[in-house]
Design brief:
466 residues, alpha/beta, FAD/NAD(P)-binding domain, Enolase-like, domain 1, 7-stranded mixed beta sheet, 5-stranded parallel beta sheet, 32% helix, globular
């Protein structure tokens, strides 16, 4: 079996790269160790978590907001088994869609563990132990990541769990402890908080979403506290113990005092780490970088000619859409084209409600770099559309160069922020100014008017509705 390109891993980076390779006329093979395609994102990440987030938000609205809308409901209750079943159905349909795309584009799919025999030979070992060798001119490593944890908080998949187990929990945790106030911890914590759980978050840093803009962190903290979250910042977890009927987490606070937290479950959500086990990278001579990542150049090529790596196994944010763009980038590079990627304009989203979305530089980053900037912000509560839908929490913040007025960063906490952020991404791709964004006619009433108003605020403080 000879190929122009073999891709190891069928997550968003891998399968999208395979499609683009096939579109460009390259004979392509895709290797996936599990029986379903789609990787972490489709099976135990982006898609199932969003399905549960949507379900839990419907329940929360029914129990908190419907009456105000004039909709009388009674005896509303959670059916977790059905909620999980719907989530599984969404996952199944999405994974089946990837299989259809592989067939449509005539991509050979090999199920099994892929490992290098040498730089041009990949061995695929299936679940029964049978091995098949593929020869290839080029290989793209897209094996993704797995949940991270530190000593003392090792998951047992029973009471001490990762996001994978959390997605299949068929009962609402009465008292959920979450280690880590990043995206995964806040999203999955939100699912159970909306369903009635007490959520206690333990975070090493001094705020939630430590890498995002400080104003975004403050705004979302207010929202989540109203939802019932409790936050314990500057706490260092020492150990987590399964007591049989629950968990006990021991931590040190900012004063180095020992404190204990008790709950039904402990979600360990301290990020993810690259998954490269079993790849046999040493057989191909591929060089590893820091923190378990594969070292690549600006063209995503490893130190070995013909071997590339994309997505969570290389530097940069661990985001599905970043992996997709890198997959397309490498495919087009192999076909002789001259693609480009702007890593500064990869949007980040947190799917709480309201959602969080951001692109470009944070205010903290601009300060650290000594950039002379200006700020414009606008609260959602001043929008007619927000009042109509009762989505009043949140704001939009725009950072622009003080001299040129070029937009340097956009940060928002808002209903539908995941979709709203694309206006900012598009504008920044064309190096728009705050004035440019302010002069675009936005439909009324919409949430996107907050973006226009924030741009006006950044342009000589011209916001109209505050």
């Amino acid at each position: 079996m000879n190929y122009d390109v073999v891709i190891i891993g069928s997550g968003p980076g891998g399968y999208v790269s395979a499609i683009r390779c096939a579109q460009l006329g390259l004979k392509t093979a895709l290797i996936e160790k599990y029986s379903t395609l789609g990787g972490t994102c489709l099976n135990v990440g982006c898609i199932p978590s969003k399905a549960l987030l949507d379900s839990s938000e419907h329940y929360h609205q029914a129990t908190h907001d419907f009456e105000k809308h004039g909709i009388d409901v009674s005896s509303v209750k959670v059916n977790m088994k059905q909620m999980i079943a719907r989530k599984n159905d969404v996952v199944s349909q999405t994974c089946d869609g990837v299989k259809y795309l592989m067939d449509k584009n005539k991509i050979d799919v090999h199920h099994g563990v892929g490992s290098f025999v040498d730089k041009n030979t990949i061995k695929v070992t299936d679940a029964k132990g049978k091995s098949t060798n593929l020869t290839t001119k080029n290989t793209i490593i897209a094996t993704g990541s797995k949940p991270n944890y530190f000593p003392g908080m090792e998951p047992d998949k029973d009471r001490i769990i990762t996001s994978t187990e959390m997605l299949n929990l068929e009962k609402v945790a009465k008292n959920l402890i979450v280690i880590g106030a990043g995206v995964i911890g806040l999203e999955l914590g939100s699912v159970h908080a909306r369903l009635g759980a007490n959520v206690n978050v333990i975070e090493f840093a001094d705020k939630i979403l430590p890498t995002m803009d400080g104003d975004v962190s403050k705004e979302l903290t207010k929202v989540l506290k109203k939802e019932g979250f409790k936050f314990n910042f500057k706490h260092r977890v020492q150990n987590v113990k399964n007591t049989g009927k629950g968990v006990v987490v021991t931590a040190l606070n900012a004063k180095d005092e020992e404190v204990k937290f008790e709950g039904d479950y402990c979600l360990v959500a301290v990020g993810r780490k690259p998954f490269t086990e079993g790849l046999g990278l040493e057989n191909a001579g591929v060089k590893m970088g820091e923190r378990g990542m594969i070292e690549v150049d600006d063209h995503l090529k490893t130190n070995v000619d013909g071997i590339y790596a994309i997505g969570d196994v290389v530097r940069g944010p661990m985001l599905a859409h970043k992996a997709e763009e890198e997959g397309v980038f490498v495919a087009e590079l192999l076909a002789g084209q001259k693609p480009h990627m702007n890593y500064n304009l990869i949007p980040g989203v947190v799917y709480t409600w309201p959602e969080v979305a951001a692109v470009g530089k944070t205010e903290e980053e601009l300060k650290a770099a000594g950039v002379n900037y200006k700020v414009g912000s606008f609260p959602l509560k001043a929008l007619g559309r927000a009042r109509a839908s009762m989505d009043l929490m949140g704001m939009v913040k725009i950072l622009a160069d003080a001299e040129t007025d070029e937009v340097l960063g956009v940060h928002m906490v808002s209903a539908r922020a995941a979709d709203m952020i694309m206006e900012a991404v598009t504008a920044m791709e064309f190096r728009a100014s705050a004035e440019d964004m302010a002069r675009i006619c936005h439909p009324h009433p919409t949430f996107t008017e907050a973006t226009k108003e924030a741009a006006l605020a950044a342009t000589e403080n011209r916001a109209l509705h505050i």
